[in-house]
Amino acid sequence: MSEKKEVVFAEGMYFKAPDERTKEKAPWVKGSVSIKMSDFIPFIKEHKDKEWLNIDLKKSKGGKLYFEVNTWEATEDQVKEVADDLTGDETEAVKGEEIPW
Question: Residue 31's closest CA among 63, 57, 50?
Fold first, then answer.
């Protein structure tokens, strides 16, 4: 069974759903993101060692939307599996009947 990881919230980053007027006049707008710089900059600096910082928009059981840092990392087995797949013979010719279109 996998361990439950600690939830890491994206500090200083907030989502606001559109109001009724916006939904009516601009249905393509799904919401807005507000960033409180005084909270967000220190948060980003905590994660500066990473090339990418993935943040998921989630909904709580109570219906409130929030941002959570996606902390997923590939296991050594997953990395090895992908590496093994990539080292296979990729120069093999593809027959016409194998192409789906």
Answer: 57
Q: What per-residue string of b and e applies to 69-84 under the rule 16 or more CB within 10 Å gives b?
A: beeeeeeeeeeeeeee
For residue 24, how many other CB atoms are within 10 A of its CB?
A: 9
Distance in angstroms (rounded) separating the CA atoms of residues 96 and 16: 51
pLDDT at residue 100 is higher than 80? no
Pick the more confident residue, 31 or 2: 31
The DSSP element (H or E) to which 79 belongs, if any, is helix 76-86
Give 99's pLDDT tier (boundaries 50, 70, 90): low
DSSP element (H, E) containing 58: strand 55-59
